[in-house]
Write a structure and sequence with these properties.
By secondary structure, chain A is of the alpha/beta class. Helix content of chain A is 40%, strand content 14%. Chain A folds into two domains: 159 residues, Alpha-Beta Complex (Aspartate Aminotransferase, domain 1), CATH 3.90.1150.10; 242 residues, 3-Layer(aba) Sandwich (Aspartate Aminotransferase, domain 2), CATH 3.40.640. Chain A contains 14 helices and 13 strands.
Chain lengths: 433, 433
């Protein structure tokens, strides 16, 4: 069942008040029983499981005293130099990001850090010769929601006003986006175009083309294109989408597109490699900033990735191993949701084909209380509201489920408890209206 | 011979004009001969030699599939978490920086990046509740010179006005510093307190105490204390200095002190670990920024360092191995300078007891031309002037020699050519006055 912002009609509306109270008693008993078990389960972050990390253990061994530390063109990766990254790693990221290698910068272990630094650059120095955002004042950013809390937080850190844009099954509501960008103070938009966080939405061709062709009033408008999950398919279907950079270039808007990716959910979250791509003009500005900021990122770790994955094809086959670990987890959650909440008219959720999350909407006003009760019973969820700007879900209904980290048996337990708690809160809320 | 900003008196002043012209011819011939050899030597950056990097090769092997990836307290370093660093690496940096472990943040592979981010934080968000520097406007920073070009560049990037402060054999000229800080727009000072870059100066106790007790008008004044070379002794004498943090705390000024260190010149420049230390209040502000900026730095690489060095003592004994590689290089340069330029009254230089550089002052107006001619003959030096704010040495006399990278034989050649070129330029300049 795809979330479409529809209004949920309670199927239990047909219950008598007594029937409803007796169901509440039943659920409360089950909840109390779970609570007494002293569970300690975490479904709060999109964190790979140890099983997944074990897939990449070879990475630890492939740069060593025996096999040496020099890159293909005999560069000593131990020393300073190669500020914008090892060529063989650029070659891996180029097809991932869909641009020429010359437009790639390989960074440290965090694409979030590269996004933060990009916004920081626009804020303190300005983009493409425009005034720094710090001096323009009153800068705004579009936040398709539900979305990724850490994206919103980056712009919030710099005092940028966050504007909520609704998500649709094909991406951000483009009518809203097109209306907002006529304001020159609207400087950009956050996007997770493939398997969006948290809804798993895949941007349609129409969405990509309309983003590429926006009549943005701001000359320093930027599309923050975080392609965090572009290779993270759960099934055999590759849901790759239209290339935003190419579409923007066709329309003369290529300087607006800033794309990010990382191996955080390919190799190791704590020790992966991140990269960004943009137009030659934007890449030159980022390179310039980097020449002040660092003498280069960890090239030995880049070399590890180049040796372990060999090439883009190597990454693709590795992702199939991840999918095999993740599929049962997603399916367990979806099956349990369907069994326990299906047809009750108190919740709707997505069935993602990839990515790291399942997004669920409860009856309005029920998300916070559900997350609170779950925490009391030992199950930590992402805070309710986190998927909206300023952490405030206007309808208090969206909860993000991150099913990747817990072992399958624990996940099963946690989701059962989730269903009990959600139904309990929804019925109580409905009765008290 | 320690540089003290004295005015060089040409000993060759006693030459007749003919004698001087014949010496110039002789030097020109030697220079041309060197030039014809097509040398390719680089003495431009403080870059460890491959010989030094070989000392740390064990680092590549000590986190592997066999020995695992968990920290002492069983943390899985492959995954997200531990935003401010692995405890065992904090324990190594605590005695290096002279503070409690709780005041340490371990970062990525670059302390320069941590300094940049700190200045960026002050610029965009402000320090200790003060207005962001971006909004205060007209912010200034003190730059003891000759100093480290990349420090000055960080502040220059943010449009901060750089004020040159003279260096003395005991550190920055504190009378000048004390005068400047009465201006509330002067927000800080760059310091390399042990084996300063480039002069190898060690701050005296008096300098440290006066820095700790400055009557700074700015409530958001910060001392950027880059202790890059604190363990980098060339000889057996440990030239550790007074603890600035303790001295500042005694005077209630601890929130002004921000200290940095890294293993770039202990393990690998391209894949080391950096750290910073400051007061609890400042560390809390940096941690907060980091919670927006990243989900944590590379903890596997931190674990490698913890395992390879074990503890602070392990780092100290490792530094003796570096010293053994570096001593002959420094001594070669100093001996060649003494043999070829000693007593001629055209140059003065320091004899550092540690660090990465030898700083030389030529006759006024001779540095740029010397560096230019050296480049033409295939020897790349740090650009003349780089050791001063905006790359402008007011007397055009200082040149930074970085003797660490070239093999000994090449270094010998390069320094011989340096002496020939420097004398040639000085004599010509003198004659043309």
């Amino acid at each position: 069942m795809q979330c479409e912002g529809s209004i949920i009609i309670m199927a239990t509306l047909s219950y008598t008040k007594d029937q409803m109270n007796s169901r509440i008693d039943e659920l409360q008993k089950k909840y109390d029983e779970f609570k007494s078990r002293g569970l300690k389960l975490d479904m709060s972050r999109g964190k790979p499981s140890p099983e997944q990390l074990d897939l990449t253990m070879g990475l630890l061994d492939c740069v060593n005293t025996r096999d040496g530390y020099t890159s293909k063109d005999s560069f000593d990766t131990r020393n300073y130099g190669l500020n914008d990254g090892l060529p063989e790693v650029k070659a891996i990221f180029a097809p991932i990001l869909g641009v020429d290698e010359s437009q790639i910068i390989v960074g440290g272990n965090s694409s979030l850090n590269m996004m933060f630094d990009f916004i920081a650059m626009a804020f303190s120095r300005g983009l493409l010769g425009q005034q720094p955002w710090a001096l323009q004042g009153g800068v705004k950013f579009l936040c398709p929601s539900p979305g990724y809390d850490r994206h919103f937080a980056v712009t919030e850190y710099f005092g940028i006003e966050l504007i909520t844009v609704d998500m649709t099954p094909t991406g951000p509501d483009m009518e809203q986006v097109e209306r907002y960008v006529s304001d020159p103070m609207v400087k950009g938009i956050w996007c997770v175009p493939v398997y969006s966080n948290p809804e798993g939405i895949i941007y349609s061709d129409d969405t990509v083309r309309r983003l590429a062709g926006l009549s943005a009033a701001a000359p320093d408008f930027c599309i923050m294109w975080d392609n965090a999950y572009s290779l993270h398919h759960l099934y055999n279907t590759d849901h790759s989408i239209l290339n935003l950079y190419d579409e923007a270039k066709l329309r003369g808007n290529e300087d607006r597109v800033v794309m990010f990716a990382s191996t955080s959910k390919i190799s190791f979250p704590g020790a992966g490699v991140a990269a960004m791509a943009a137009s030659p003009a934007i890449i030159a500005e980022v390179r310039r900033r980097m020449s002040f900021q660092t003498i280069g990122y960890d090239k030995i770790n880049m070399l590890r990735h180049a040796r372990f994955f060999r090439d883009f094809e190597g990454v693709l086959s590795h992702m199939k191993l991840h999918a095999a670990v993740l599929r049962p987890r997603f399916e367990t959650v979806l099956k349990t949701l369907e069994t326990n909440l299906g047809g009750k008219g108190i919740a709707e959720w997505n069935s993602p084909q990839g990515g790291y999350f399942i997004s669920i909407n409860l009856l309005d006003g029920c998300a916070k209380e559900t997350v609170r009760l779950l925490k009391e019973a030992g199950v930590v969820m992402t805070p309710a509201g986190a998927t909206y700007p300023y952490g405030k879900d206007p309808r208090d209904r969206n909860i993000r489920i991150a099913p990747t980290y817990p072992p399958l048996a624990e996940l099963q337990l946690a989701i059962e408890l989730f269903c009990i708690t959600a139904e309990l809160v929804c019925l109580k809320t409905y009765l008290n209206r």
